[in-house]
Amino acid sequence: MRIATSSLDLRRPATLESALQALRDDARTPIAGATDLYVTLNFGTLEARRFLDLSRLAELRGITERGDTLVIGALASFTALQRSPLVVKRLPMLVEAARLVGGVQIQNRATLGGNIANASPAGDSLPVLAAVDAAIVLRSVDGERRVPMTEFYTGYRASVMRPDELITAVEVPRVEGHQWFRKVGTRAALAISKVVVAGVRDGPRAARFAIGSVAPTVVRARKAEGVLAKGGKIEEAVRALQAEITPIDDLRSTAEYRTAVAGNLLRRFWAETA
Amino acid sequence: MPVTAVGQSVSRKDGIGKATGAAKYADDLTWPGMLHGRTIRSTVPRGRIRAVLFDFDTTGFTIVDHADVPGSNMVDLIERDQPLLAVHEVRHVGEPILLLAHEDKEVLHAARVLVEYEELPPLLDPEGSEQTFKTITIDKGDAAAMAGADLVVEGTYQTGHQEHIYIEPNGVIAVPEDGGITVHGSIQCPFYALKALKALLGPDIPARVVQTETGGGFGGKEEFPSIPAGHAALLAHKSGRPVKIIYDRVEDMVSTTKRHPSIVRHRTGVKRDGTLVAMEVEVILDGGAYVTLSPVVLSRGCIHAAGPYRCDNIRIEGRAVFTNTPPNGAFRGFGAPQTEFAVEVQMERVAEALGMDPVEFRRKNALRAGDTTATGQVLREDCSALAVLDEAVRRTEFARKRTEYEGTDRAIGLSLFYHGAGFTGSGERYLKSRARLEVTPTGVRIATGSTEIGQGTRTMHAQIVADALGVPYESVEVAQPDTKHVVDSGPTVASRTCMVVGKILEECAVEMRSELGKLSPAEYFAKHGAMTVERMYEPPDWIRWDDATYRGDAYATYGWGCDVVELEVDPDTFDVRLLEVTAVQEFGRPIHPALARGQIEGGTVQGLGYALLERVVMRNGAMANAQLTNYTIPTTLDVPEIDVVMLENPYPGGPFGAKGLGELPMDGPAPAVVNALRHLGHDIRAIPATPEMIAASPVAART
Question: Which one in A40, A52, B424, B486 has a CA-CA gap of 20 to 30 Å to A245?
């Protein structure tokens, strides 16, 4: 650990209200599983020293149905997502994504809310939430607001979330049609995504498709979807998709590879869900 | 008839301690008044040091630079070219400049040291380097015979760096005692570290080295630990207190040695019937910024560069060159994985160019007893190239699958390989390795410098002694390698710990048995008191080697292997999924079948990682992906169960017929994987063969 842990300031509120008040009072970084945060803490690159530990807020752990809406508490762990009969039934591709996040120890600690708040473009749950038009529920002492997942991020590791807000839940409207998920990591397990995609086939011409690790934020492939909705050829949709992503060369992969694989996965999705 | 230990998978001597957590590794140890040490390192690949500034309150710190060295500031290895602490210039990122110690680890890590450099243009391309650490030429027959070939195939092959990824990073504690310094640490070769400490500390400060329980080495703790050991010793000497230095994973990956990257060029001439006419091989190893062990890595690489094939006319020319990158060093296989990758892919391409089946081509040319190697060594009956090839082909139904997989996403490929056991040429003679056996009140104790680094040294040595002495395995103890109490058995490297040190122990045990008469060791002790037997290694008397011409018996014996890899390439993502991996290996005779299998499985997985996943990304001379997240080694999901076949062909010069094993399994997986990819039509000439590379590789038109 390269950062002096004795210098860290941690508060651990017992209720959501006190947590929100604490965030209003002074700037703190909320933590839940701390699985992403620990990496930077260990490397000595983390700037934050003041934290708000949300782990006691049991009310944010639940996974419930409200009418047609699946409501997933922000503190639901990836293990909880895999075990939830509701998620298994209504959003099986989130179960698939949850199984491929890190290893079992990480899945036990890491939370869906944390994956969203961490705002990495490689977050494995993000394309799933973007493809199904999920809404992120944000709370502050002033009240609650809902932001569509597709409008949540504003840039690389940047979102509309204010420093005094917490993600409390994710709301997923009923999903009809075939769900499809694919993660392309640097190896078979314990890998960060090089490309990660989620799709819903709503009908012969209708698809919702989202893709991660190919742009500063998760990308909902509206243009490719539009081509398919108008009855366009899949190759035309692939070209549209490749035009709306902006992959880069990095430590894990290349722009060229990501572009090619993004296209291949759209083709595969379209063929397998036909 | 008592059950003998050799050939049985007896319980490991170190098993319970490691399974229960009782085993103490370097970072588990603490001393009263101990300080923690930290290394300030270069952040530029080449430059002159203009100033070193302390941006912290130095109270309570011990600070050491090159001026504090009592003896020589140069690491005492092959060449004395590498400073323990930089003086005026730095030649690579991560080069040690200054040492700090403090009793509070957090205060230590918070200290800011600013180094100002005059940066100079670094040399990063090994092909562009004119500074050569070592050149080697091996000539057999006349390579000009190439002119008489029906067909000449050329190719250039490249391999990247590889990280050892021992579970335990480097760590040492230096303790001032009895007017000298004792270093306890995660060390493969305590007597190498001792030699380096003696040179560093000078004649007035006695040094001693004690190996702590070690979490893996793979060569990475062969020569490298002399540096942290020296650093901790300098801090301990200056402060008068024990000093612990433990690298975290990032520091270990950025600044310690790796496998040498290679560029290997082949020209191979063949007759239409597949007979090898001539081979020309050029080997370039990137040595990094200092010599370390590069000359001997190059030597082993060159000796293995023609592969396990008979050819009358061979010229191999190798060079290890300087670049402004962290020095590369020992890594399981020691140059052979690089050159055997190249030759095995080249042989596949030659067979392809001839329109010949790759198995037939290899069968025709594989070395047999009585054949001569590239150095002119006449092979004896312990040559098993054909045996491993035939068994691997039969067992995997290679021919059937080769045809069946045509036109699918599946493929099958193989590699034939060998590995010389023990030090090269006259090396074992120069080493004069010793081993000692001591009678104790309860049995016998082995006192050697050989280290247990996870591979099973203690267990395997105790088995050999138990059977040679005719005593129960349980009554044999193994002393902790401590340079004050054990003899120098030579380094724990080069697949020599079983074959060479095990042989000395066998001879010690035989001699002790004749001294004991009919008594058990404990009975002898009760009656006569202590007795020790110490012997020195005598290599087989027929070994002839000429270091000047590189002619003769390069190794006393060789292990032989054939790996078969079946894989599938995902047509969308180009991910390679390994379906079946078969490793047929002959290494004399397994002393401990479960440990031997572990060596083969582990080495094969390490080789598969080398082939497909493990990519060191260098940016401006520094490893940019120095973390286990982005330098990916195989997980259990990346590797299928490995079908391990251990063929026996006892070597008369080894204990109970055993040869060396540790490195052999590392040589075969990469070419087998790449040859399988070739079967699919991907013309891959470099590893790691990442999905990015496969996606970009042209699918060759195949005949």
Answer: A40
